[in-house]
């Protein structure tokens, strides 16, 4: 988390939207085997918890139940060139969006894992054109066999730490110059957030 308080945005609905829109992140933990992480889809329960699943063989899997972990969701980002500022005496930086969620993890039972997988696939299928895929379209034995290879977890979120670094520490006209530069260089998503959230 960036230390500058200008880069905070404590709107919980916005942070929940980041989780749902990005939908993928990393889970980190210190383990007896050293620091470990897993890359995983993430689903917010909407009531202060985050669900995820990882492969049973992942080096983190045996350490998660009962552990305190950090989940990280990275949003849009982009390099900021000093040439975009009116004052050319600036230095390069990076604008970005990141959300860190700290909390305790518990292992889900098989019903919880199935519910998580159904919610995850429903969320992602709703983003696609055409008739959505649902789990009942695959043979139940096949689903059970695949589920045996993964473990579901729920993270009780105890700490939300967001960074929305969108040039809030610059005057409005400089922010617009940076947003235009980012947009022209192919970083339209971070430029749009600068215009919508940092003004």
From TrEMBL:
InterPro entries noted in UniProt: Split_barrel_FMN-bd, TR_PAI2-type
The transmembrane segments are none
Protein's UniProt name? FMN-binding negative transcriptional regulator
Q: Which organism is it from?
A: Novosphingobium ginsenosidimutans
